[in-house]
Amino acid sequence: KAGVTQTPRYLIKTRGQQVTLSCSPISGHRSVSWYQQTPGQGLQFLFEYFSETQRNKGNFPGRFSGRQFSNSRSEMNVSTLELGDSALYLCASSLRQTVQETQYFGPGTRLLVL
Amino acid sequence: DAKTTQPTSMDCAEGRAANLPCNHSTISGNEYVYWYRQIHSQGPQYIIHGLKNNETNEMASLIITEDRKSSTLILPHATLRDTAVYYCIVRLGSSNTGKLIFGQGTTLQVKP
């Protein structure tokens, strides 16, 4: 079974631009979560989607948003990019939105904001 | 969710067992212990999880103390490819969320 895929793998943007990242979960998985990883803050939870609905949100500004489609694929968007948004963005999927279900991570999208 | 404490770094000789400790003294009865690892710049990889009993899979063993206040992840025969940051995470069993709260983890360096 194919793993979680994320596109693009690398991205360079300039301040003020916006960016959209895509995540395709493992086939059959309906829950998708997004995380941001930076050297200073480590791995931080962004948001979680299940059945096209955002079920949980981390402590990030409104510039960070996301959505999930009926096929469980998910996108996250960052508007008005800042230098501090440079990070590895990780997507994880699981069958359902419960603690008993293991989350499997994709390879991440590395975003550099200049 | 209960907080975990892990050593910042550890070394292990190639071929020997790597024993990674995790303290979760405030864990409650319905909280699971999960272990993930992250090899440099890759996505975290699931290793193993448990509630009360010791668990073993093809990657590792998880030993949970009887009082559940600590656990140890054991990689039986460490290889150079096991060099990574290892995260111990406690997740609430009754929670309807997949959210993971990562700490700083333990950087394991496997040496030849």
Verbal overview:
- The complex is a heterodimer of chains A (114) and B (112).
- Helices cover 0% and strands 53% of the residues of chain A.
- Chain A has 114 residues and is mainly β.
- In chain A, the strands form two sheets. In chain A, strands 2, 4, 5, 6, 9, 10 and 11 form a seven-stranded mixed β-sheet that branches. Chain A has a four-stranded antiparallel β-sheet with strand order 1-3-8-7, with no helix packed on it.
- In chain A, a hairpin with a 2-residue loop joins β5 (42-50) and β6.
- Chain A is globular.
- The model of chain A has no long low-confidence stretch (mean pLDDT 94).
- Chain B has 112 residues and is mainly β.
- Chain B is built from no helices and nine strands.
- Chain B has strands at 9-13, 18-23, 31-38, 45-50, 55-56, 61-64, 70-75, 84-92, 106-111.
- Chain B has a five-stranded mixed β-sheet with strand order 1-9-8-3-4, with no helix packed on it. Chain B has a four-stranded antiparallel β-sheet with strand order 2-7-6-5, with no helix packed on it.
- Chain B is globular and about 40 Å long.
- Chains A and B meet through β4, β5, β9 and β10 of A and β3, β4 and β8 of B.
